[in-house]
């Protein structure tokens, strides 16, 4: 009988740090100078999110679709057989972003706003941490081209825009990717996993905290309605 306890995370990562970094380098060589267009698109998404524009999620969907097809299907699948399924998940997230509506007049908690802005800027400035990773500048990851910075950015944008069940629904795939990527980077010995772990923790805690706040507000409103009805 198969003993799963005998396996470690490294047994499910079929490539080395050198191979992974070379993949990132190949991706950059293939897509440059589309990095600039991707960054401009991300800045437009952030501005639209701050103004709570109704088309923001549709613009964000373009980033997910691009990374799913251009990075995961075209490159990452070469390293990991599961890359195809990751690509499918990214495309599914893009369709969710297109389908899920947004009520722009919904009030969000200040913690949600601040955390959202912080995560969005972490995603935008992801290449700035390359000294921590001891990698060459040609191997830097950037938003709209690679998975990790795009996910971190998306977690922030979703906090700026969504509440309730919409936020929970749209957070499932990004948080799952964060968990998988944290494990992968840790096995490969790349210290960027600490930044991703911090992102995962902040996003999760903000999600739980603001959900409890919304529940409390809803219950308080229900009590006020019930009290006024009785009078």
Model description:
The chain has 231 residues and is mostly helical. It has one domain. Helices cover 74% and strands 0% of the residues. The protein has helices spanning 17-31, 34-50, 56-79, 83-99, 110-124, 130-133, 147-161, 164-188, 192-230. Helix 2 packs antiparallel against helix 3 (56-79), helix 3 runs antiparallel to helix 4 and helix 7 packs antiparallel against helix 8. The longest helix is centred in the last third of the chain and has 39 residues, at 192-230.
The count of DSSP E runs of length 2 or more, i.e. the number of strands, is: 0
- Total helices: the number is 9
Poorly predicted parts = 1-8
| Beta-strand share of residues | under 5%
Keywords:
single chain, globular, disordered N terminus, mainly alpha, 0% strand, 231 residues, 74% helix
Write a short abstract of this structure.
This protein has 231 residues and is mostly helical. 74% of the residues lie in helices and 0% in strands. It has one domain.
What is the strand and helix layout of this fold?
Layout: H1 17-31, H2 34-50, H3 56-79, H4 83-99, H5 110-124, H6 130-133, H7 147-161, H8 164-188, H9 192-230
Helix pairs in contact: 1-3, 2-3, 2-7, 3-4, 3-7, 4-8, 5-7, 5-9, 7-8, 7-9, 8-9
């Amino acid at each position: 009988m198969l003993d799963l306890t005998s396996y470690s995370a490294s047994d499910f990562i079929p490539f080395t740090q050198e191979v992974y970094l070379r993949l990132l380098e190949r991706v950059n060589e293939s897509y440059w100078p589309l990095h600039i267009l991707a960054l401009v698109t991300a800045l437009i998404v952030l501005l639209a999110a701050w103004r709570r524009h109704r088309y923001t999620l549709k613009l964000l969907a373009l980033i997910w679709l691009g990374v799913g097809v251009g990075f995961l299907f075209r490159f990452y699948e070469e390293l990991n057989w599961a890359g195809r399924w990751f690509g499918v998940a990214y495309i599914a997230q893009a369709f969710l972003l297109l389908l899920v509506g947004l009520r722009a007049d919904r009030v969000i908690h200040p913690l949600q706003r601040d955390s959202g802005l912080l995560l969005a800027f972490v995603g935008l400035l992801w290449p700035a941490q390359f000294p921590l990773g001891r990698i060459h500048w040609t191997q830097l990851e950037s938003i709209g081209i690679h998975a990790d910075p795009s996910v971190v950015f998306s977690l922030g944008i979703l906090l700026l825009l969504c509440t309730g069940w919409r936020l929970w629904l749209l957070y499932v795939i990004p948080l799952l990717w964060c968990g998988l990527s944290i494990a992968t980077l840790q096995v490969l010995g790349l210290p960027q996993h600490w930044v991703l772990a911090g992102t995962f923790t902040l996003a999760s805690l903000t999600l739980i905290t603001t959900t409890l706040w919304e529940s409390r507000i809803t219950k308080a409103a229900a009590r006020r309605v019930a009290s006024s009805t009785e009078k």
